[in-house]
């Protein structure tokens, strides 16, 4: 049996070295983004009651470098952002199985909806893309995502925001579930989205343990023309 195992291992090794590997296509990209703003504050808005002028002139934290990789039906992408230390923005692999694409890794989630490329310096919320004013953004999160045409569904890393007083610990048992469908025809685009998230806040008092289930849902429709 041991000799058979060694023989099969040797055959597999020979096959691995003789079968030509699919050449991967690498597409590198990068973006250097600068704050180039002059901020003029009137005395009524400053803490010390004096007019204040400040120049914002520095590299933005959302500058990035990355690459798209493709080898047949298998693909992937990585992207790192600027900061005191490199910040991982995107890192995932994909498999195109014909009818759709399966993604595993850290990516934008199905419900992420950007309505603008609005820019602004750090004093006004940074590169906010109008997310504070009607956008829906779950961030770049770990997930397993299935895409088929305009439909996306994903099992996403759950979000935990405790709201119970005196929380001792939090428990999660299932990932967040997100889905979105985008329909486009000519200049019209309609996106319907939804997500469900749950976790437990646990409070331990002496020998008594009490658990509260915290559920959160989001549903939305975006129309652009």
Can you give a write-up of this model?
- The structure is a single chain.
- This protein has 225 residues and is mainly beta.
- The chain is 8% helix and 53% strand.
- It has one helix and 13 strands; from the N terminus they run αβββββββββββββ.
- The protein has one helix at 2-18; strands spanning 25-31, 34-41, 52-59, 64-71, 74-81, 87-96, 101-108, 140-148, 151-156, 169-171, 176-185, 188-205, 208-224.
- The strands form two sheets. Strands 1, 4, 5, 6, 7, 8, 9, 10, 11, 12 and 13 form an eleven-stranded antiparallel sheet that branches.
- The protein is globular and about 60 Å long.
- It starts with a helix and ends with a strand.
Topology diagram in text:
Layout: H1 2-18, E1 25-31, E2 34-41, E3 52-59, E4 64-71, E5 74-81, E6 87-96, E7 101-108, E8 140-148, E9 151-156, E10 169-171, E11 176-185, E12 188-205, E13 208-224
What distinguishing features does this structure have?
mainly beta; disordered N terminus; 11-stranded antiparallel β-sheet; two-stranded antiparallel ribbon; single chain; 8% helix; globular; 225 residues; 53% strand
Provide a short characterization of the protein structure.
This protein has 225 residues and is mainly beta. It contains one helix and 13 strands; from the N terminus they run H-E-E-E-E-E-E-E-E-E-E-E-E-E. The longest helix is centred in the N-terminal third of the chain and has 17 residues, at 2-18.
């Amino acid at each position: 049996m041991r000799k058979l195992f060694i023989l099969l291992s040797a055959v597999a090794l020979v096959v691995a070295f003789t079968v030509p590997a699919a050449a991967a296509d690498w597409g590198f990209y990068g973006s250097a983004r600068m704050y180039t703003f002059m901020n003029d504050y009137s005395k009524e808005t400053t803490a010390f009651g004096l007019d204040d002028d400040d120049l914002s002139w520095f590299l933005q934290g959302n500058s990035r470098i990355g690459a798209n990789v493709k080898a047949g039906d298998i693909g992937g992408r990585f992207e790192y952002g600027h900061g005191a230390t490199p910040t991982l923005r995107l890192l995932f692999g994909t498999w195109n199985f014909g009818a759709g694409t399966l993604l595993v890794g850290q990516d934008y989630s199905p419900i992420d909806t950007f309505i603008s490329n609005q820019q602004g310096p750090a004093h006004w919320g940074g590169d906010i893309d109008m997310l504070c004013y009607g956008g829906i953004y779950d961030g770049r999160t770990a997930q397993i995502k299935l895409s088929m045409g305009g439909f996306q569904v994903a099992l996403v890393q759950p979000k935990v925001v405790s709201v119970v007083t005196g929380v001792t610990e939090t428990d999660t048992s299932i990932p967040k579930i997100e889905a979105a469908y985008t329909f486009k025809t000519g200049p019209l685009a309609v996106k319907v989205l939804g997500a469900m998230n749950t976790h437990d806040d646990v409070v331990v008092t002496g020998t008594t343990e009490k658990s509260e289930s915290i559920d959160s849902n989001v549903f939305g429709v975006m129309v652009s023309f």
